[in-house]
């Protein structure tokens, strides 16, 4: 599955947010929060479209799609040199698809700040420096390994070294190598290295209870930095989320209303994480179940079918597709068919977010 690692300095609110995320996930009866590990949680992706589909189809059950979160504790200044949990911690970050970087934007005398004062920019830079140093080590090792072959006249190896040198100087400038590759070979080299600084990042500005509304200088600091990297920011208050996560149904709605919130920050966070990963959802809608399935944007019909079952992909013949809006506006499948809004699509069809799909395949 797809996963996000939650990182940040100690005492910024990571555990508070992770616990709120994963206990809130328990509310979705069909996808209870699964404890794989104390620090790994699976969370349902909230999608109001599923309820609309269910109103039409009246399925026996509704199954949302999910995302995995990892609470990666232990990053401190010097981690790349083995301080704190050091390399063990860094190994966890290498394995995630994307990073949620929690930044402390709340003052609280009772909660010690590891560097003595609240300073979002400095905190972010401490983490980024550790990640960049560890990545530099990775790149340098690859260069050392590949240089010998390059000197021996291996053209591919030479290109590999040249690209890695560009990655190295980008890291030395304190920038992300994320957008460096100019062709498929370079993209593969970058992917192969699992560099942490190349992963997509979403910043989570963790603010005090009273600072959820309006603009706050600390949040502005995070926003500016994020904007310069092309990253997103979600503002939440860890303590409020912890309270919300203990409520359900009516009680939860009442609390949100009282706080003047349309949805919990965690719902926003989950959805942003989903977008950050470049993921979209398609649906299957039958009387047994209405279900959401996760695919990467750009996936073609057979690949989408393969998420359900590999046989669907192997034996793919065609897909019957109704856009979500058409499905709802036509009152369901038969209505959409009558209006000619059900399309038959082949192997080259690129699935759209919200497509309601039915696959035809050979067994
Ligand atoms: P971690 O070390 O990053 O996992 O941080 P924790 O989640 O353990 O939080 C450290 C402390 O900060 C705890 O005492 C939390 O109650 C407190 N804290 C977390 N989020 C907030 C917040 O949004 N506002 C305030 N005032 N305190 C918070």
From TrEMBL:
Keywords: ATP-binding, Magnesium, Metal-binding, Nucleotide-binding
CDD domains assigned: TGS_YchF_OLA1 (cd04867), YchF (cd01900)
Residues noted as binding ATP in the record, renumbered to the chain: 11-16
Highest taxon, organism lineage: Bacteria
Keyword ATP-binding: yes
OBG-type G domain span: 2-256
Listed Gene3D superfamilies: 3.10.20.30, P-loop containing nucleotide triphosphate hydrolases (3.40.50.300), TGS-like domain (1.10.150.300)
Domain TGS stretches: 278-361
One GO CC annotation: cytoplasm
Family (UniProt): Belongs to the TRAFAC class OBG-HflX-like GTPase superfamily. OBG GTPase family. YchF/OLA1 subfamily.
Protein name: Ribosome-binding ATPase YchF
Organism phylogeny: Bacteria, Pseudomonadati, Thermodesulfobacteriota, Desulfuromonadia, Geobacterales
Record gene name: ychF
């Amino acid at each position: 599955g797809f996963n996000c690692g939650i990182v940040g300095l100690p005492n910024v609110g990571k555990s508070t947010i992770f616990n709120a995320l994963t206990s809130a996930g328990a509310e979705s009866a069909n996808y209870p929060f699964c404890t794989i590990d104390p620090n790994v949680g699976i969370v349902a992706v909230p999608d109001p479209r599923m309820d609309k589909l269910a109103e039409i189809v009246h399925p026996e059950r509704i199954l949302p799609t999910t995302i995995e979160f990892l609470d990666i504790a232990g990053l401190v200044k010097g981690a790349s040199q083995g301080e704190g949990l050091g390399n063990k911690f860094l190994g966890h970050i290498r394995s995630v698809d994307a990073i949620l970087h929690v930044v402390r934007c709340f003052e609280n005398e009772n909660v010690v700040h590891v560097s003595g004062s609240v300073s979002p920019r400095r905190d972010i830079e401490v983490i980024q420096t550790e990640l960049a140093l560890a990545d530099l080590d990775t790149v340098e090792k690859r260069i050392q390994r590949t240089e010998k072959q390059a000197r021996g006249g291996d053209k591919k190896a030479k290109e590999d070294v040249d690209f890695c040198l560009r990655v190295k100087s980008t890291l030395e400038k304190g920038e992300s190598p994320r957008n460096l590759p100019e062709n498929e070979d370079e993209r593969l080299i970058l992917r192969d290295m699992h560099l942490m600084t190349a992963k997509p990042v979403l910043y989570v500005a963790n603010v005090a209870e009273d600072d959820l509304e309006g603009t706050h200088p600390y949040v502005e600091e995070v926003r500016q930095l994020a904007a310069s990297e092309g990253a997103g920011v979600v503002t939440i208050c860890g303590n409020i989320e912890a309270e919300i996560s203990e409520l359900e149904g009516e009680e939860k709605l009442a609390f949100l209303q009282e706080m003047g919130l349309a949805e919990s920050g965690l719902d926003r966070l989950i959805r942003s994480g989903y977008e950050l990963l470049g993921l979209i959802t398609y649906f299957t809608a039958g009387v047994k179940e209405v279900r959401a399935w996760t695919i990467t944007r750009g996936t073609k019909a057979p690949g989408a079918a393969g998420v359900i079952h590999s046989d669907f992909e192997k034996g793919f013949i065609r897909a019957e597709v109704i856009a979500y809006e058409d499905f709802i506006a036509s009152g369901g499948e038969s209505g959409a068919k009558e209006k000619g809004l059900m399309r038959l699509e082949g192997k080259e069809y690129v699935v759209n977010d919200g497509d309601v799909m039915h696959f035809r395949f050979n067994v």
